[in-house]
């Protein structure tokens, strides 16, 4: 078993460290030789069929759902197609409006999650075309979808998903750029610039991993608390949700992720002296707004860990900077310190990191 973990104490840590490779492998063979366009040979839709898409529905569970939240922002921003997102166990029961011009994107690491599979079948029954983003070749989801993008994360063993999530983000970026190119919603030069930034991500993740010890120390003090908050706006909120889920899954510390601007409408009542708040502030256009929310919690005594872009100064108790990238790509970096926080908090509490209580890697019952 030690050999399988390649010298790491846990599968989760090994998988966190495999992310640079997972990013490279997921991009490999999908970017043209001149670096100017995305080639998704696995997508069978004709340009005409793509132009006929009127709406997109993303359906997934757990961590894959959180990747879908970022995916919604990516697709709406790049392709200007309206995107709805649902957790799979809700989707079928809300009578979603599905037409032949609806594209349903199901996201699933395992490709076997019962609720996600049921949603896929329902979407197909209603005439939608289904695209699956999955990590497992030959999985049920991959066999039943019309089109499949395989994330090349490699096998993920730890129950808490890490490299599968980040590979899903890469897959959404590739697909978003592919749509933007086909629909001509973005200039070719712009697409080339984004692809160049994406190819820098693996090295930038390495730079974060090199500073893991800093996060270990922060996590050890977080582990003494029973409640904490994650806040952010835009894709930072989507990442906040994933960071919060990761922490809950393996450290059993209760946390809530909140859109930073929504705190004052209720949740601010829970902020008291010493409570840890992890604040994500990576989106330039939302910077001032989030900053004022950070001040709101600080004024009430919160102990704030700020996750910022390199070079940005925010007055908080602790600061962790991520390398600079494009706003839409920042989730692929900012989630990494949150994965490490969860890992080290779980370790500090003496939990079974790879096999948290009550949870299963793949849930094949509805
Ligand atoms: C389980 C796992 C989660 C995972 C979710 C969806 O609940 O514990 O980590 O995110 O299923 O799994 P999938 O394989 O569909 O991505």
UniProtKB/TrEMBL annotation:
Domain SIS: 46-189, 218-356
Protein's UniProt name: Glutamine--fructose-6-phosphate aminotransferase [isomerizing]
Gene name, Swiss-Prot/TrEMBL: glmS
Enzyme class, UniProt record, top EC level: transferase
Annotated localization: Cytoplasm
Keywords: Aminotransferase, Cytoplasm, Glutamine amidotransferase, Repeat, Transferase
Portion of the parent chain present: 241 to 606 of 606
Catalytic activity, as annotated: D-fructose 6-phosphate + L-glutamine = D-glucosamine 6-phosphate + L-glutamate
GO terms of molecular function: carbohydrate derivative binding; glutamine-fructose-6-phosphate transaminase (isomerizing) activity
